[in-house]
Specification:
With 166 residues, this protein is an alpha+beta fold. It has four helices and three strands, in the order E-H-H-E-H-E-H.
């Protein structure tokens, strides 16, 4: 069976009407799914903020700007029996956290025998959102060069992780 990938934007403006072959039931199910994904993303964002010592809504505010976060789903058909959920924090969170959270190298592991269903849902900053490190997470105004060298040596050459199975 041939693969049939498509991308649906849900927020800030939906393009689901571009897919007339999707049933009303599927539309309703996707709307509920997206509502739950947004709740999950916002809860994870709050926990990340707590971990970083930031106000709990810092990431939500940073991602929002004029239209709120962008939310979309990429679907690749046909289905598979493998039910795996991964959360990739992404490059924008690496910037916002000033490198304390690292984005990983994105890889898709294809099955040798059989097909797979991939549903990647993105909770991204709005297109006009300005992403920068949280001021609280920046280097202090003044620091000893020796302290900087210790930090540099500890993190500079770590690079991006190759994924969950290192």
């Amino acid at each position: 069976m041939a693969l049939c990938p498509f991308f649906i934007w849900h927020r800030p403006k939906s393009n689901i009407e571009d897919f007339p072959n999707l049933s009303d039931d599927l539309w309703a199910t996707m709307d509920e799914y997206i509502a739950q994904v947004i709740k999950l993303a916002e809860k994870l964002s709050e926990l990340i903020c707590e971990n970083l010592g930031l106000d709990k809504d810092h990431i939500k505010r940073a991602f929002s700007e004029t239209n709120g976060p962008s939310v979309g789903t990429k679907v690749l058909i046909p289905p598979s029996d493998n039910a795996t959920i991964c959360v990739n924090t992404g490059d924008q969170l690496e910037v916002l956290s000033n490198g304390r959270y690292k984005s990983i190298l994105h890889r898709v592991m294809a099955e040798k025998n059989g097909s797979r269903l991939s549903v990647a849902t993105f909770y991204n900053p709005a297109n006009d959102a300005i992403i920068s490190p949280a001021p609280k997470l920046l280097y202090p105004e003044k620091y000893a060069f020796g302290d900087y060298l210790k930090l540099y040596a500890a993190i500079k050459f770590q690079g991006k992780s190759q994924g969950l199975n290192q």
